[in-house]
Amino acid sequence: MGTLHLVRHGQASFGADDYDRLSPLGQRQALRLGQFWRERGQSFDAVYSGTLRRHDETLAGIVEGLGSAPAAQRLPGLNEYDSLALIRAVRTEPLERPDTPERYRHHFRLLCDALAQWMAGVVSPAGMPSWDEFSTGVHAVLEDIRHRHAGQQVLLVSSGGPISAAVGAVLGTAPEVTIALNMRIRNSAVTEMSISPKRLMLQTFNTLPHLGGNEHTDWVTHA
């Protein structure tokens, strides 16, 4: 039986003008994951990723630490939803920069509300697909991997939204549970699914095996 390793990107630049790039810590998280896998003899038969910059930079760090990996298949279906478009769909006032703990919490409260309304079909954020189209795209990638890679080791680098949608599809979770899963996925965290010809099954969720030990305590981030 094979394993699909879903990795959320390393810490990005939350609160900056351009979120879609890894912070220096995010780069170290990705490199450390690759090094961890190399130390344990992990290798991959296939690699998939979204097409966002933070996906590319995360994968580059993992491959540097790992030593080598197959060329990635870059798929727009693994890209994150547009969180700002979602929030603007439920809030018309200008958004404050989330540069304090309270503003940070407020930002994610708005996002959770917007996600719930998007999933229910109440709002249609500008430039975004519907939730059904978004989740169907993620599910199509999973089905393709299941058919192609039973018995193989597969790496997939994406974002919290597609990964939580993938877990939700496998477990059949309600939308509110999918949102809760999304909000808890940590940067560079690994979620594993077993791959068989018949199904994908969840094995682990949101783990950070590469950041164990006191020396990496302050490397655990969520944005």
UniProtKB/TrEMBL annotation:
Q: Gene3D superfamilies, from UniProt?
A: Phosphoglycerate mutase-like (3.40.50.1240)
The alphabetized UniProt keywords are:
Hydrolase
Query: What GO annotations for molecular function exist for this entry?
Result: hydrolase activity
Family annotation (SUPFAM superfamilies): Phosphoglycerate mutase-like
* Pfam families named in the record: His_Phos_1 (PF00300)
Its recorded name reads Histidine phosphatase family protein
Give the species this sequence originates from.
Simplicispira hankyongi
